[in-house]
Write a structure and sequence with these properties.
216 residues, alpha+beta, Aminopeptidase, 2 domains, 7-stranded mixed β-sheet, two-stranded antiparallel sheet, 6 helices
Length: 216
């Protein structure tokens, strides 16, 4: 799957809210994403499908829309001579996941990380984690921390892969079922040891899922 990362934009917010509600239930207190766009103490990244065009067949001349302008019909006819036309990808559901990070002193805290349910298991969550760690390093954070459901062993294994360790528990943290949250924190992320491990993990990711694209 061709997925890249970039910073959250205003036009992404409706899709991100959909993903947030799907991942955390309607009872979750929704993040005020519009207000947070200009928060210098936070980083919001979205994973989105690649922007390559797709080829579609052009209808015969008789099937061209009659309500198009003369120029529009001419353009379609010109494309028809070539036998095909390019159209942009569908605008809906191009955002596949997101991650939000708050910077608090020397700590970077992942407040939410979520992927559309049908797309889980395709490396998108790991890509978001990589992006958040890169952002934290650029910001100068010393460690990264997060909460995760105690029952979410798949997510915990991913975090452990990037040297997150269990350091505590928040009782009844999740509002939908009062489930406890495991608190996980990395060792210092600006050390040579961590940076080498992080490079190795990114190389392993590239070998399995492809190049890591993070737009500025």
């Amino acid at each position: 799957m061709d997925v890249s990362l970039r910073r959250l934009r205003a036009e992404d917010i409706d899709q991100v809210i959909e993903i947030e509600r799907e991942a955390f239930s309607p009872l979750w207190a929704s993040t005020p994403f519009k207000r947070e766009l200009n928060n210098r103490y936070a980083s919001y990244l979205v994973a989105y499908r690649g922007s390559e065009v797709r080829e579609t067949a052009v209808p015969p001349n008789d099937d061209l829309p009659k309500n198009r302008s003369l120029w529009g019909r001419f353009a379609l006819l010109t494309q028809a001579v070539l036998g095909r036309r390019s159209v942009p990808p569908e605008p809906d559901s191009n955002v596949t996941g997101y991650v939000s990070v708050w910077y608090q002193g020397e700590e970077a805290h992942i407040t939410e990380i979520a992927v559309r349910e049908p797309l889980r298991g395709n490396g998108i969550g790991e890509l978001l984690l990589i992006g958040s760690l890169r952002s934290a390093m650029e910001y100068g954070s010393q460690v990264m921390t997060l909460e995760v459901r105690v029952s979410n062993f798949i997510a915990q294994r991913l975090y452990e892969k990037y040297d997150f360790k269990l350091v505590g528990t928040r009782k009844a943290y999740y509002s939908d079922n009062r489930e406890d949250a495991a608190i996980m924190t990395t060792s210092p992320i600006l050390t040579d040891e961590y940076e080498q491990m992080f490079q190795d993990r990114q190389e392993a990711y590239r070998s399995r899922w492809g190049e890591i694209h993070i737009d500025s």
